[in-house]
Amino acid sequence: MTVYPADLKYDKEHEWVRVEGDAAVVGISDFAQDQLGEVVYVDLPSVGDEVVAGETFGEIESVKSVSELYAPVSGTILEVNDDLGSTPETINSDPYAGGWMIKVSVADPSQLDALMSAEDYESFVANEA
Amino acid sequence: MSADVTKTPSSAPTRGPRELIFETGSPAARCFELPPLDVPEVGAEALAGQARTSAPALPHVTEVEIARHYHHLATMNFGVDSGPYPLGSCTMKYNPRVNEDACRLEGFAGLHPYQPLSTAQGALELMVSLADALAEVSGLPAVTLQPAAGAHGELTALLTFRAYHVANGDARKRVVIPDSAHGTNPATVSMCGYDVVTIPSNERGGVDMDALRAALDTDVAAFMLTNPNTLGLFDENIAEITEMVHAVGALAYCDGANMNAIMGKARPGDMGFDALHINLHKTFSTPHGGGGPGAGPVCVTGALAKFLPGPLPVRLGDGSFSLVWPERSIGRVRSSFGNFGVLVRAYAYVLALGGDGLRAASEQAVLSANYLKERLKGAYPLPYDRTCMHEFVLSGGKLRKEHGVHTLDVAKRLLDYGFHPPTIYFPQIVDEAIMIEPTETEGLADLDRFADAMIAIAAEAVSDPDLLHGAPYTTPVRRLDEARAVKQPDLRWRPAAGE
Questions:
Q1: Omega cis (within 30) before B476
Q2: What percent of chain B has pLDDT over 90?
Q3: How far is B398 from chain A (nearest CA, A)?
Q4: Is CATH 3.30.565.10 the right assignment for the domain spanning B98-352?
Q5: Terminus of chain A with fewer CB atoms < 10 Å: N or C?
Q6: C-alpha angle with apex B106: B101 to B111, nearest 5 degrees?
């Protein structure tokens, strides 16, 4: 059963965002990891890189396919989850905690308002699937 | 499903993986002896320090052991010679044996790429004749045979486009691609230094015309389209699409992966495309199950001919054959003349079938796909329910949601029924995609056997989902750990320490 924690925000490309002060932690949703299947590789940006909302910030490869990762908000990369380099399967087993990908300083907090609540995202997924 | 082990002697032959050839044999075993030395012997010092200091770690086996080794490997494989192989987008048609005969003719097989042209006239004539045939099939008059595969053909064509724009003093930045495209299309665009713009498909599976219109401007270098596309659907708006592309000064590229649907029926050149690659290893029946070698000739308009890779084989006025460099060639894209043996096979296929035969092959491929589509669309949802071309895409989404059975499980179970699985999880715009291309190779009895198997598996998914989760049961190896295979590939034997 897929789960969508209520304290996170979500975008239509299936990333989640956890707001931590002026920063946003980003990963992919339980639905996204389930659709992808076993993750074997993830390509993430470096600390200091700029990301733009709606544009790609990396790639994720599973046994099925390679997909783009889209930034939910614009900003500068503060931290990257380097552990995913050796254990990308954490994205499958623990998408909302150990599977986090990047931490971004949020340039424009209003972009967070455009994201979906867990409830809205759940119905978005139900319609898409 | 497993055999009763108590009755199986320990020496019973195994169908599964055996010891590697390096791990068998004995030091004294040989299956080849070098002839006596007939030149003066030299010492290691003559090799200026390049002489190896230890013997190579080669297997030591007898001739019968090596024969059994390769025979066993062959029986572990599943090819089109083993059974139906409906691998969508790959056109796994039968490879006629006469092609193999032709490419092994001494005059072809024994050629050297640098021997004098006067002694290789037949090979040049074959290349010119094959290029003429491909020009006729594609409706695009200028052809290079050099590219070694489809993606290489894409790259060659896009480099040609780039040279064309640069020659016009027109640096462009972007290439537009629909979301149903093969992954090689955006990869090619990146390799050429352009940015990719992806546009969605419409509800009929074709190009979304409004999205295309919005994406086109004078910074767009090209639009790449597979037609028929990866859903097996012919784009009804193709004439308007290429007109819109040309209106902003961009060029239209056709990914020819699906040419097997339209040979002798419709020509990409007539649709307004400026370039097309043709996978000889798909459409023209040359073997490719092992990953190559392939050949991806590129056909272009007269306006692009002067940018093609060189040298190009040509027929001279006196009937002899030579090589020329196009005036503003992008250079070689492959050593020598590409994969020449593949070209010989493809030409043998063209000659064997002729124009009418090629058309009949496409007609049969399309008919077979539509027959399977109609038989299967009750058992599996068909998201784009239209008359298809040579392939169609079912969805395993319903089985997944209602019974927890994934498309991967269906594919694995098909192996137990004696079929190579279709392409799965592509195109990505179909949930749990199952992409089926029977080609013209399979007769009605095999098409029905395949349809019966797919329908039986859909029923098994409902009655016994775990049966599918555990499949396959009858293959030399069972379900593989694909994630580990990607993350920790172990591809070659290494001598044990100290050996």
A1: no
A2: 81
A3: 10
A4: no
A5: N
A6: 120
Question: Does B183 sit within 8 Å of A37, measured CB to CB?
Answer: no
User: Does the CA dihedral B309-B315-B320-B324 come out positive or negative?
Assistant: negative
Chain B within 8 Å of A40 (Cβ-Cβ)?
yes
* Contacts with B425 from chain A: Cβ below 8 Å: 64-65
Question: B358-486: which CATH topology?
Answer: Aspartate Aminotransferase, domain 1 (3.90.1150)
Indicate the angle between helix axes B444-463 and B407-416, nearest 10 degrees.
120
CB proximity A41 to B under 8 Å: yes
Q: Do A64 and B183 lie within an 8 Å CB cutoff?
A: no
Sheet architecture: strand order including A50-51: A9-10, A15-20, A23-28, A102-106, A75-80, A50-51
Kindly provide the ipTM of the predicted complex, given to two decimals: 0.79
- pLDDT for the residue B497: 66
What is the tens place of the pLDDT at every residue in A50-70? 999 999 999 999 988 889 999
Note whether A65 contacts B483, CB cutoff 8 Å.
no
Cβ distance B483 to A40 less than 8 Å, yes or no, reads yes
- Residue A81, pLDDT > 70, answer yes
- Please say if the pLDDT value at position A121 is more than 70: yes
Lowest mean pLDDT, pick from A1-10, A47-56, B218-227, B354-363: A1-10
Q: Which residue has the higher pLDDT, B23 or A81?
A: A81
CB atoms within 10 A of CB A98: 15
> With contacts defined as CB-CB under 8 Å, which chain A residues touch B486?
40-41, 61, 63
Interface check for B405 against chain A (CB to CB < 8 A): the answer is: no
DSSP B92-111: -----HHHHHHHTSHHHHT-
CA A21 to chain B, closest CA, distance in angstroms equals: 34
The domain of A73 spans 9-107
Q: Does the CB of A91 have a partner CB in chain B at under 8 Å?
A: no
- Residue A87, domain CATH: 2.40.50.100
Q: Is residue B159 very low, low, confident or very high in pLDDT (cuts 50, 70, 90)?
A: very high
